[in-house]
């Protein structure tokens, strides 16, 4: 691994990734490169809706291009206590350049 923007401390931790197209992907950061391309393990996409709870689509091992993402830490204890079946939210809109 190389010098990504502060990602070294997040390796082997659960992170949340928001993509430019509005997807929210949660998984364990396994690696990254100088372009911030990332590898997630045990990942799933959270699909938000205003009508029903959050759907979690299993992705497994997943690679995401670094030019399309924002990476954030995830408080695993707080996340584990969320009842996603009762959570309602508008889906994120894609980034328009």
Automatic annotation (TrEMBL):
Domain of life, source organism: Eukaryota
Gene3D superfamilies: 2.30.30.100
Taxonomic classification: Eukaryota, Viridiplantae, Streptophyta, Embryophyta, Tracheophyta
Pfam families with a match to the protein in the record: LSM
Major site of localization recorded for this protein: nucleus
Complexes and interactors: LSm subunits form a heteromer with a doughnut shape.
Entry GO CC: precatalytic spliceosome; U4/U6 x U5 tri-snRNP complex; U6 snRNP
Species per Swiss-Prot/TrEMBL record: Ananas comosus
Reported function: Plays role in pre-mRNA splicing as component of the U4/U6-U5 tri-snRNP complex that is involved in spliceosome assembly, and as component of the precatalytic spliceosome (spliceosome B complex). The heptameric LSM2-8 complex binds specifically to the 3'-terminal U-tract of U6 snRNA.
Keyword set, alphabetical order: mRNA processing, mRNA splicing, Nucleus, Ribonucleoprotein, RNA-binding, Spliceosome
Descriptive protein name: U6 snRNA-associated Sm-like protein LSm8
UniProt family annotation: Belongs to the snRNP Sm proteins family.
A biological process from GO: mRNA splicing, via spliceosome
Compartment list: Nucleus
Annotated Sm domain residues: 2-78
GO terms of molecular function: mRNA binding
PROSITE patterns membership: SM (PS52002)
């Amino acid at each position: 691994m190389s010098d990504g923007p502060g990602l070294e401390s997040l390796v082997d931790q659960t992170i949340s990734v928001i993509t430019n197209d509005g997807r929210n992907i949660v998984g364990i950061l396994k690696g990254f490169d100088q372009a911030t391309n990332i590898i997630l393990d045990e990942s799933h996409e959270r699909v938000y809706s205003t009508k029903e709870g959050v759907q979690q689509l299993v992705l497994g091992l997943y690679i995401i291009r670094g030019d399309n993402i924002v990476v954030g830490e995830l408080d695993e204890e707080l996340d584990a206590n969320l009842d996603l079946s009762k959570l309602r939210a508008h889906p994120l809109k894609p980034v328009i350049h």
